[in-house]
Each structure stands twice: as C-alpha cells, then as structure tokens.
Amino acid sequence: MTRLPPAPLRDRITRALRALQKDAPAALAEPDAYDDAEVAAMLRQIGIALVEIQQPTQLVRDRLLHIARRYTTKEVRVVVLPTVLLIQIGAETHEIESSTRGTTQLDLAGRVDAVAELAGAGAITPRDAIAALSDARSMRHRFGPARTILGYVLTTLGFGILINPTWASLPWYVLLGALVGVILTISSSLPALTPVAPAVAAMVVTALSAGFIAEAANDNLLRVISPPLVAILPGMSLTIGAMELASSAVIAGASRLMYGLTQLVLLLFGVTLGLSLIDHRSAQQMSPLMGEWTFYPAIVVIGIGIYLYLSGPPGSLLWLTAAVGVALVGQQVGELFTSPAHAGALGALLTVPFAVIAARIRSSPPAIVMLLAAFWSLVPGALSFESLGEAATDDAIDVRALGSAVAAILSIALGTLVGWSLYTTWTARLRRVNADSADTSN
C-alpha cells in the first residue's frame, strides 16, 4: 500500500505548486453592466485580432461567444471568416470588421491572447480591452532587421540539419538563409511586394544554387534549396484550412485552402523559373550525413531562430524551444509507426496539451505563442518541400509526392483537432466536478 507524505509536507508541496501557477483574474462586474455598443466593439476588436494571428475561425467564434456571456445576457451571433468578422448583440447592435493582415509575430500574439483571457474572465472593461488591443495590433518587431535576419539564418540552418544534415551543405544554408531573410525583410517594409516575395526568394535561391552552390556542396539541388525555402511555405494556411473544413467551417476552410495552394503554386513557379534561368542541373552524389545526433541540436537552433525571427516575447526562449522539441520529437516517434507523411499527427496531438498546460505556469508565455512556434516548425518538415519540388520540376507529374504532401497537411490537422477535443472534454469534465464539489460543500 502506497504511503502518502505527511500532511505538512503535502501542504508545502501544494503551496509550491500553486505559487508556480498564474493567478486567475476575477470578474469586475455582472453581465449587462456595460453598454451593448461597447461590448460589441470589444468583441469585434478581439475577434479580428485573433483572426490576424492565424487562429482557426471556429475557435475564434467559440471564444467570442464565451467572452460575450461574461458581458451580456442578450443573444449574441458571431460570423467569423478569414478576412471578415460580424457581431450582433440582441436585435439592434451590430459590428463588422475586415482585415487582410496576417501575422505570426509571437509577442503580438501573446498580447492579444492576454487581453482575450482577461475578457474571458470578465476581468477587463470593454473600453480598456479596446485600447489594449489597439496598442497590441500596432506593436513593432522586438528585434531589429539584423537580428531578424539572423533568426531566419538560424531557422534555415536548423531545418537544414533536420532535412539534409551534411557538413558540406551547412555554410550554404547560412548563405541562402541570409539571402532569403534579406528579401523578406525588405518586402515587409514594402507591402506591395509582400505577395510576391516568396516567389522571388525561391527564384533567386534556385538560380544561385543551380549556378554553383549545389555543385560546390556536392549535393542534390533540391536538398540544398529546401531548408531556406521551407520556412516560407504556406503550411500554416493549408493546415488551418483543413482544420476548418473538418470542423464544418466550409467557407473559411475552402477559402483558406485556396489561398495556401495559390501561394504554394507561386513558390514552386519561382523554383521552376530559377531553373530555367540557369540551366545547370548536373547530377551530384549525396554528401555523407552528419549522424542521428544532429536531431537534438537542430531543435535548439530552430528554437533560437524562431525566437528571433518571429519576435518571441521576453523570457519565452526556453518555452518556445520546448514546444518545438515536443512537436518534432512527437513527429519522429510517429515515424516509428507510420510513414513520414503521416507522422505529423502525433507531433500536433502532443503539442496542444503541452502548450495549454504549460501556459498555466507563471513564467510561461500564452498557449497561442507556443502553438504558433510549434506548428511553424512542424509543418515545413512534414510538408516535404523536396518532394513537391521534384513533382514540379520533373517532366512527369509525381502523384505520389503530391499525395504525401496532402497527407502531411491532413495528418497535422487531424492531430490538432484530436488534441483540442481531448483537452476541451477534459476541462469541461473538470469544471463539472469542481462545480459539484462546490455545491456539495455549500
């Protein structure tokens, strides 16, 4: 029979665990204490901010309805699409907002989520929430252009070690990562160039690699250009679109999938255009691999790169690296039981509960921040840009490669849905148990 620790020791352990957890905010007022127009404006600002930080529309809708119950007893209707948001409170109050801006800036996402958390507890006035969200949506990148480019270089290097870990290719990953980082940094200050920046980066990288880098690195061309380009794949849009379709958000899911596919086609067109400019595709033998030990240093390098490139919140480096590690280790474990194209499901499944539970610790960033970092690292590896590149550049269409890419997207979407379903079921049951305990004590 297992003996429990003495009561004083249990009390100290309980107090220590509670000290690590974040304090739950208290509601400021009862529902209907605020004007409906202010509540609708707050819901509009929260909703469009969540859409801009790449949250699935069905989750945004559920979150807005939960927040609305803290502020009003009237019927609330919410319609969320990838670029449009509609709010109705009662029969008279309406709010409409549109935005084509999307961002994965992690400190901005953390600030938005923090305001949404306060609103979900009724712990902030609508006016204060609107002001806080306005400030959050105008946040600038924490790091300057030089450190942002360095972050992309490290991310490219980390993906290179994961995808094609050869000593001869490492310096070229650094060079090509810096080149793509400069292109993306310039385009971010010129919004008119943002839609074509990935295609231009793919064309320049492919032309440069076909000219001399692949031969100098003694490696296959697509193995050299994949790491600097996988980070700009529209994997997030494709995966979220698949999640929305699976959740019956047909319009949102279909439109987001079409957007992601269009971006992917433009990226592949940049690759084929670069090959046509420099027609030099001499066959190269693959360089010797560095070894399996490189997997774990790659996680650390990717974590640091994401922290710099995506503007991680202060003090979040270790948490972001841990989230990336959970996703990639889960994906690697999944490969023991299934194909690489389907292994992303386990990585996504493990990432959701890790991020949500870790977010309760006082020193951690919000769950959204860790989820964005994990999926941003998980999608490129599972998407297999190299297979897609072969399908686009070969004379015959490689249906198997295209099928593997689609399977990777759907597997990550499925793993995420299962993770969220298990977590929400568990938390709902826990709330019922706590409520029953409270009623019994009363």
UniProtKB/TrEMBL annotation:
Protein species of origin: Mycolicibacterium thermoresistibile (strain ATCC 19527 / DSM 44167 / CIP 105390 / JCM 6362 / NCTC 10409 / 316) (Mycobacterium thermoresistibile)
What protein is this chain from? Threonine/serine exporter-like N-terminal domain-containing protein
Q: Which residues cross the membrane?
A: 149-167, 200-218, 224-245, 257-278, 293-310, 340-359, 366-385, 405-423
Domain of life, per UniProt, equals: Bacteria
Family, according to the entry, reads as follows: Belongs to the ThrE exporter (TC 2.A.79) family.
Report the residue ranges that make up the Threonine/serine exporter-like N-terminal domain in this protein: 44-277
Does Membrane appear among the keywords? Answer: yes
Q: Which Pfam families match?
A: ThrE (PF06738)
The Gene Ontology terms for molecular function here are: transmembrane transporter activity
Coiled coil: which residue ranges? none
Q: Which InterPro entries match?
A: ThrE-like_N (IPR010619), ThrE/Ser_Exporter (IPR051361)
Question: Keywords assigned by UniProt?
Answer: Membrane, Transmembrane, Transmembrane helix
